[in-house]
Amino acid sequence: SSGINAEWPLRPGFEALFMILDKKDQDFGEVVFDCIVFIICTLADHKFEHFRPVLDNYITTYFFHTQVYIKLLDRLKIKVEQFQTKNIGDIMKALEYLFKFIVQSSHLHSQASTIDRSFSKFTRSLLEFFDKLNNMIKVHPNRLTTAKTLKYFPHTIPELNKILPLQTTCQIISNFIDAVPSTDKKEKSTDCDSALIPLL
Known about the structure:
Elements: H1 3-23, H2 25-43, H3 51-62, H4 68-82, H5 85-112, H6 117-139, H7 143-152, H8 157-163, H9 166-179, H10 185-196
Helix pairs in contact: 1-2, 1-3, 2-5, 4-5, 4-6, 5-7, 5-8, 6-9
């Protein structure tokens, strides 16, 4: 089926999940977050690549949740701190679209709010997540986890560029590179250099 035909279950499915995350985070937040990660990972499979523009269109055109960025970031921080190899691998694979949702949600929130203090709080929360991600790599130097993190971390950079000063984004990249174990230097150089390309 075409991406257009596939949009009908995608949009209401995500809407239902985000409504639950927005209203019932304490009760069902973990389960809903895991479902969102699972769907994104499934759509990332090559045989479902035609869903990508559908998902992009949903985020830019129909997605309207102004508080979800807080919930998604909080869940990301918890998952990284808890560290389970299988879960972290899936989360890294879903990281690009998790950040698309986070950034769009924060953008919608800033448009709806006359107070900008929440944005600085959001920035601090973002930096906390990357600090926890770096700490995870240092404390759990699992080769598979490090490889997946190296592979998918650069995909967050275009989204960060939309909301953070260039200096802050560069500092995030620099801190991440420093956190990668020295045994992965060759892979670190190749993958992390690609993270700088959107900044040039």
